[in-house]
Amino acid sequence: MKSQLYKAVLLTALGLGALTTVQAQDALLGFNDAGGTANDYVIDIGSINQFTTTATIDLSSAFSASSFTTAFGSTPDANVAAGLVGSLGNTFITSFAGGTPNLGNLPSGSPSASQLNVSLSVNPTAGVYASATPNGWSTEVAPSTTSGGTAGTVASNTGNPMGTLTGGTITMALYESIKGGTVRNPTASAWTEVGTLNFNLNTDSILYTGINVTAVPEPTTYGLLAGFGLLVVSLRTKLSRKQA
Amino acid sequence: MKINKLTSALVTLGIISLASAAQAQTIIYLTGSTAARQQVFNALTTGNQVFTAGFTGKYPAAETGSDNTFAVEGNVAGVGDTIYNCNFTGSEAGIAAVAGQTLSQTLPNDLNGVPGTTAWPLPGAPASYLTGATLGAMTGATAQHASDLAMADTSQAVSRTSPTAYPLHSFGIVGVIPFTFVKAYDSAPDAANGRLTNVPVNAVYNNLIQGASFNANNYTGNAADVSDGVAIVGRNFGSGTRANFLLNGALFPIRGNVTQFAFGTGNTLYPTTAPGVLTFGTTAAGVSLGAAAYNAGQNLYSVANDGFDGGSSVAKTLEVDWNGQGVIGIGYLGLGDAKNAVTAHDIAGHNATYLTYDGVYESDAAVISGSYPYWGTENLYGQITPSAAALSAGAALQSGIVANVATLGAQAAGNDVRNGDSRTILPTSVMQVTRSHADSGFPVQCAAGAF
User: Per residue in B422-435, pLDDT tens?
Assistant: First the structure.
């Protein structure tokens, strides 16, 4: 880790530019407005690793009030909705919005492995863009709180994560499901609540509060998972404790 | 001596360039696509395609264009005596390099750091170039340096280094680069394996999502083929080959998370000696397993969205004996690496097999006519504001590669990739279809010369 920091400093000193880290599978907070501006605003709020805490985390710095205004105007209408999806390896996290939920099979039971695979593959573009944009939030996650969109969306597989803002605020419960099993016969764990995310447009704040210490994916293979399940559970517990 | 030390220090700090320090040659630093290195070398060393009077020297002296690091010297119009100092590290890394950025990634299964948090630079990023102000002063030693030019298998439009934030100078397209699918070796293939000879686009799309639980019947069309799954072996996000595979082979979102596979477990996949780098066939300490890495019974591992940083490791994985896995391996490769995979290039003597894509084998004729749409375009980029020397050197290189590719032309109809006769790059002038310089979309007919 030290060498990485040293390398970043050295590169900057050499004028070779800053390290640009590609977080291919971060947590994304997305907004859309199906009944109004038909724009999306998607924020990358970082790795889902940060949700392995029972503390409250302030993620407000990721939010841009000006970008929100660009997407939805200075006086957003009542259709503006928000949701969260994120993944890391075999772990998928999604929101259950308290405002106006339309969540299909969430949060009861568990998704099928096939459904979970689809949601794990989704990685919409961050930024402000028209809702019809390919590879965007509305086309890959959910076009609205009441529509699942195409067969390949998160909403059509593991449930619609979107809820409508009420008075500029929304509180979302976050749930995770983890892919396990074997290479040929993967499984999906039952939904587990890991915390809540509160967004407040009046104060431009995003706060996460953990209620359950979840685990980051372990360096396992499916085969090892099948053979050494107990060992994996033990390692996860250790790592979670270390990071908490 | 003190002045030399000061100069050396200033060069190291990038305050003055090696070119001005040497007062002799202008050094142009070229990085990017490894797939393009042979064409770059060929153009630099053929007649007056890049240089006004042919090349005057190269390092290493025996270089043939097969290495990622070399240098070639000659006179460039408008610049004078010029050394193209080359270090090819991949298309995405190259685009980032000329933008002054260095790509790194986090890994979900990271034994050497914190999964999803520890950032590892992509292999070969930033580029490390031969040191020495003249060819004669080069010893093989390398050092990181800012890059002037980069070859890329796609345009910047689909790059992680956004053209909005980093509007690089485009020198244009130099040719068309085809790719192919290859099936992994199996010492005792079952019936389903024997029937898997074709890659339908909808099958490979869903396979990227569902991983090895995706059954072979989706490829073969035979309802009985549900005992075998199919696993995709491929590249990491820094690869132009991967970008073209997603965009034109699988019609998959370029940012989408895919499920790919490799053989190994724990630190044999990410050795402590190469943290953050998916590695083929080593121990946890990074020691090569040799022929043993190709034996049946290896541990098949889902590396999720990661992949190999080079096509050679994909080819090697496809040369492993997949017998007994209950899974058929397929991979996407440039033609050079594919040829290695199917011609028993590995030390175990195993050979993979070419596959058709939507019923068509890759061939020059099929690419040219549009019946085989799995191809991309090779681009040349410079910094956002190139130096005057880089502008001239880039223009000379672009026109030189175009001229070199044009002299190769295309194979006559009737040959295909199985004969080993397909070109690894085709001149745009022979194309009868175009994507209008976009990186995706179905090719449409165009008039001769209107690519």
Answer: 999 999 999 999 99
The structure tokens 């700090």 sit at B13
Per-residue pLDDT tens digits for A144-187: 988 888 889 999 998 889 999 999 999 998 999 999 999 999 99
- Choose the mutation target among B255, B272, B306, B325 for the interface with A, i.e. most A CBs under 10 Å: B255
Q: Which two tokens stand for residue A215?
A: 């685990």
What is the least distance, in Å, from the CA of B326 to any CA of chain A?
8
**B122, B78, B141: which is closest to B237 by C-alpha?**
B122
Within an 8 Å CB–CB cutoff, is residue B160 touching chain A? yes
Give B255's contacts in chain A (Cβ within 8 Å). 24, 123-125, 135
The C-alpha atoms of residue B199 and residue B341 are separated, in whole angstroms, by 17
CB proximity B119 to A under 8 Å: yes
Token pair of B73 as six digits = 């010297």
pTM to 2 decimal places: 0.85
SS3 of A84, please?
strand
In sequence order, the 6+-apart residues with CB closer than 8 A to the CB of B111 are A219, B266, B267, B270
CA distance A145 to chain B (A): 23
Q: What is the ipTM of this complex?
A: 0.83
- Is residue A71 situated within a structural domain? yes
Q: Which CATH number fits domain B177-369: 2.60.120.1600, 3.30.70.100, 3.40.190.10, 3.40.50.1450?
A: 3.40.190.10
